[in-house]
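Input (Gluconokinase):
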Amino acid sequence: MTQPTQDKPQNPIHLVIMGVSGSGKTTLARIIGERTGRPVLEADDLHPAENLAILDRGEVPSKAKYVNWLESVRDWMSEHGRAGESTVVACPALTRAHREVLNEAEGITFFVHLYGTFDVLSERMSHRIGRDMPQELLVAQLELLERLHSDELGIQLDVTRKPEDLVDDALASAKFAETAYGSES
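Output:
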């Protein structure tokens, strides 16, 4: 079996897999990373301990704390973008303002919004592997969530579909965006 290769486009494209807790962001990001050979970031890994404690209580960090965290995610994306590397990032990016911070990254930012009903997401959270997040966080995130606007670069995908289909749709849509913005990969 051959190793996946990393294309080095003129305009690196950052696939931001976004959505609330339980939507499968990390799973999808890892699969895309394995398939494409792109570096993958679980954005929660960049949260300071103080933010994680807030999240563990089922709350969303203050706007200032959240923006500081998003800026560190953006900076990670930019570092790779300057090196000509496209990336995959699992990050909630719940509001347009959050996504605007990520859009400042070097390269093209393409959002893959994974969405589902409260019941579906809640059930998925109860079976998640890894860091447990309280149901209160799901409620808070759903209240904060703004779906992608028509002028934002991205696609919305239903989480009840098979992961392989979600990956195929995400990559095909991102490839279309990459082509439309002059990349050569």
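The chain has seven helices and five strands.
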